Amino acid sequence: MGYILKQAQHGLRTRMDQNLRALGLSTAQYALLVALQDAKVASGADLARRCFVTPQTVTGLISGLVQAGFVVRSASSSHGRIIEARLTPTGRDILRRANRIVYAIEEDMLADLSESDRAALGRMLRVCALRLGGRSTDLDEN
């Protein structure tokens, strides 16, 4: 089961990398932009946790996104040693464009599944993720 899950993840990542390249983004950069959209403002350490990468990796990703004009960094108002990142208007625009690409890939991936199968797959994957993370598998938590 784990191998099949890894095959699906690898196929999804490969397709995302190929298609996001048209926007000058990698899948890792896309994930960081999504995390920033969700958080509004976040530190490098917070982004690393959200994106499942090391703080060193986030530093490189943010640097590239700052150079592209998608992200700005500034000192935290609550803690002087923390540098926070946030999306720029250009970053929000590129994220909207990237979302359309990713949603199309996901739609293609799920094309042969009915709506009920898609919902069931989502629930099952959440249960797996929660179990592996040592958390409750209460499906009503979404």
Question: Secondary structure elements and their pairing?
Answer:
Blueprint lengths: L1 H19 L6 H13 L2 E2 H8 L3 H13 L3 E5 L7 E5 L1 H21 L5 H18 L10
Antiparallel strand pairs: 1-3, 2-3
Domain count: 1
Distance between the termini: 23 Å
Arithmetic mean of pLDDT: 90
Rg: 17 Å
Strands side by side in the biggest sheet: 1-3-2
- Strand percentage, roughly? 5-15%
Tally of extended strands? Answer: 3
CATH level-3 fold name: Arc Repressor Mutant, subunit A
- Low-confidence stretches are none
In CATH, what is the class?
Answer: Mainly Alpha
SSE sequence, one letter per element: HHEHHEEHH
Counting H and I runs of at least 4 residues, what is the number of helices? 6
CATH architecture: Orthogonal Bundle
Give a written overview of the molecule.
The protein is mostly helical. It has a single domain (2-106), classed as Orthogonal Bundle (Arc Repressor Mutant, subunit A). Helices cover 65% and strands 8% of the residues. The chain has a three-stranded antiparallel β-sheet with strand order 1-3-2. The longest helix has 21 residues, at 89-109.
